[in-house]
Amino acid sequence: MNTTFIPLNEFRSQMETLRRDKGMDFLRDMIGMDWGEDGLGVIYLLENSATKENISVATRTTDRVAPAIPTVSDLWKIANIYEREVFDFFGIIFNGHPNLRRLFLRNDWVGYPLRKDYDESEAVNPVRMYSENNQNDCTYTLAEDGTIKQIPDTLFDNNEYVINIGPQHPATHGVLRFRLSLEGEFINKVDIHCGYIHRGIEKISEKYPYPQILALTDRLDYLSAHQNRHALCMCIEKAMGLEVTERTQYIRTIMDELQRIDSHLLFISCAAMDLGALTTFIYGFRDREKLLDIMEEVTGGRLIQNYNVIGGVQADITPGFAEKVKTFCKDILNKLNEYNDVFTNNIITRKRMLGIGVLSTEDVISYGCTGGTGRASGWSCDVRKRHPYALYDKVDFKEIIYNNGDCYDRFLVRIDEIKESVRIIEQLIDSIPEGEYKVKTKPIIRIPEGSYHAAVEGSRGEFGVFIESKGDKSPYRIKFRPMGLPLIASMETMLKGNKIADLMAIGATLDYVIPDIDR
Amino acid sequence: MEMKKPIIKSIPYEEFKDNETLEALIKEINKERTNVVVGALDDLINWGRSNSLWSLTFATSCCGIEFMSVGAARYDFARFGFEVTRNSPRQADLIMVAGTITHKMAPVLKRLYDQMAEPKYVIAVGGCAISGGPFKGSYHVLNGVDKIIPVDVYIPGCPPRPEAILYGMMQLQRKVKIEKFFGGVNHKQKKEEQTDNYPLVITNVPQEITDKTEKEQ
Ligand code: SF4
Fold first, then answer.
1. Which residues of A touch B59 (CB under 8 A)?
2. Count of the separate structural domains present in chain A
C-alpha cells in the first residue's frame, strides 16, 4: 500500500482539495499511528464513491507531548468519531474538532494505550469500581503553554430533560449507552457512549504472533466470524505473496455466504424481538440452528469457528457437506416466505418501520455506513462488487439496492441478501475442485516490512484490516475497520425529531454488534 | 430434619460431576438441625425456587448469543423453568454473566448485582467471565468476575455449548435445592463477601454532599 505523506502545514488545504475537487467522499478508515522516533500521526484511507478510486494519505507530527493535527470532521461526518478514537488511543489533539473527548476509555484513564511507550501496569490503571462522573463532560484542547488541557463542556443544558438508556438494556444489543435529550416524546439530542466492551484487541495483537491474532478476529463481530478472519488471512497472504488454492477459495466463499445467512437470520429474529414479535424470533433461531449444524460439522464450532488459517482453511469439508448445504438452501427460501407472512407484511411492522429513521445517500457516504444500511439508502457499497476478492468476480449475483433509506428498506435488504447468498452458494457448491485445502507455510510467519490493507464484505458492512509490519513475527500496528462504528455515528442524524420508541426500530435495523464497534 | 441430596428428576445423581461440593454444603447445613415442619417447608420453597429461576438478561458479547440460542427453539430452557428473563435486576434471581467484562463495565456489573434482591446467584459463562479468556493480557479486561462479585457456578467454554449452559444452570438448581430458607445457612451475602473484600460502588456523589460529610467527620 502506498501512502503519501502530507506535511502538516499543507495538510488541511490538501484534504479539502481531495474532498471537494477529487471527489474523495468516502473516508474508509482513519488509522492512528505511533511511528516512535518519527512521531505520531494518522493515515487516512479515502475512496471516491463514484469511480471507486482509492488513495491513502498520512500526516504526522514529531511533538509527543502535545501532538496536534488539523481536524477534518467538517469534511467527512464520520471523522468526528474517528478523531475521538484516535485521541483516545494516541492522545493526538485535532485542532478545530467540535467536542474532542475520549470515545472508549473512561475520562479518568491515565495514558494513551496504543502509544508504544504506554505503561500497562495495574498500578497506573487499576480496575476503578466507582462510576464515571458524567456531569464532567469535557473537551480537550491545546493550552497556550503547549500542553493538553481539559476544559468543562456541558453537552446538555440544565433545563434539558435527559434520559439514559443502557449500558444494560435489552434493546441496545449488548452494552451500548445512549443519553437522549427529550422534548416530550421526541428526541432532541443524542450522545452515544461506547467502550463498555472495549477489549483492547489491537494492542494485544501487537504482542501476539500472526496465527494467534487470527483467533481474536472471530470474537470481534462474532456474527461475521468467517469474513473477519478471511480479511485478516487475505491481508497476511497478500503481504507474504502466498497463493491459496482454488479449493480454498471455493470453501472460503461458500463459508462466507453461509455466515452471512446466519447473521441475517439472527438479524431478522432480533429485529422482530425488539419490536415485540417473539414468534419470529423463535422461527429465526429454529432455522439458524440447522445452519449451525452444518457449520459445526465442518469447523467444529457453532459460533466461534476458527476456520480460516493463513494459507487455507483448518480442515477439509466433510463428505456430505454439499448435499446438506443444498437442502438447507432450498429450505431457507421457503422459510423466508414464512417470515414475510408473520412479520414483514404485518401492519404493525410496517407502521413502525416505514419512513422511520431515514438516511440520505449523501449521509451514508459521508458517515461511511456500508453494508445493508448503505445499500438501503441507495449507495452501491458492496466490497464484493467494488473490490472483488476470492471468487466474487466469477459468480453472478445482484447487489441489492433500495432507495428510501428507512428502517423498512434496511430490513428488506437483508431478506433479499439471503436470497442472493443462496444464489452464490448454489453456483459454487457443485463445482468445488479437488486439491489441497491448505498450502504449507513456514512454522513461524513473518511478513515483509511495509503496510498492507485488505477488505471484505462482512455481514454488516466493509470489514478492513490494516497491518503495518517491521518484518517481525507480530505486527507493528494492526487496525480493524469496525463495521458498526459508522452505523452508530449516523444514529444522531436518524434519531433527531423521531420518537423515543423509534430508537428501538432504528437500532434493530442498523444491526450493529457492539464488540465489533469497541474492539 | 436432615437435608437430603439434591435430586433432579430424570437425570441420575451420579451423572453430575462435582457432587462433592454440594455434599460438603449439605454437611455444613446439617450441623444445625431444624424441626420437621420447618424442614418440610424449606423443601417446598426450594422446590419452587429452583424451578423458577429468573435470570437477568445480561449479555455483553459472544457468549450472549449462545445464551439466546439456549432460550430459543431447539434448546428451550423453559423446560427447566428458566424461561422468564428479566430486564430489571430488581426482579431477577440470578445474573448470567455472559461475555467479557471490561474495566468500564465492572462498576456497572457490581451495581447491577447490588441492586438484585436476596437470595441471588451468579453464573459465570465462558472463559471471559471466568478469567478474562482470550483477552487476559489486555489492559482493559477484568480477569474474572469473581474478583468483584461472588460466583456460584462457572461454565467454561468459548463460548460454552448450549448443553453446557443448561448443565450449569441445573447445577445451580441443585445448589438452590439444598439451601435452608428459614434461618440457618442461606445464600445471603456472607460477611466475607461484603464490602471489605469487594469494593463498594459509590456513584456520582455531588460535591456539596462530599464536602459536608467530610466536615462532619
Ligand atoms: S468466552 Fe469466548 S465466546 Fe465467550 S465472550 Fe469470551 S471470547 Fe466470547
1. 174
2. 2
A304 lines ligand 1 (CB under 6 A): yes
**Nearest CA-CA distance, residue B138 and chain A, Å:** 6
CATH class entry, domain B13-188: alpha beta
Is the ipTM higher than 0.90? The answer is no
Pair A92, A205 in one domain? no
Contact B187, B179 (CB under 8 A): yes
Q: Which helix (H) or strand (E) holds B19?
A: helix B19-31
> Which pLDDT tens digit goes with each residue over A402-419?
888 888 888 889 889 998
3-state secondary structure of A353: helix
Q: How many residues in chain A?
A: 519
Which chain A residue has the Cα nearest residue B110? A129
Query: Residue A191: which H helix or E strand, with range?
Result: strand A186-193
List the CATH number of the domain containing A148.
Answer: 3.30.460.80
pTM value is 0.86
**A166 at the B interface (CB within 8 A)?**
no
Using the atom order of ligand 1, give the atom closest to the CA of residue B135.
7
A2: containing domain: 1-118+141-153
Contact present, A326 and A429 (Cβ < 8 Å): yes
Q: Is residue A504 part of a domain?
A: yes
The closest CB to that of B139, out of A132, A200, A289, belongs to A200
**What are the boundaries of each domain within chain B?**
13-188
Ligand 1 touching residue B65 (CB < 6 A):
no
For residue B196, the distance in angstroms to the closest alpha carbon of chain A comes to 13
Same domain, A223 and A147: no
Q: Model confidence over A228-264: pLDDT tens digits?
A: 989 998 888 888 888 888 888 888 899 899 999 999 9
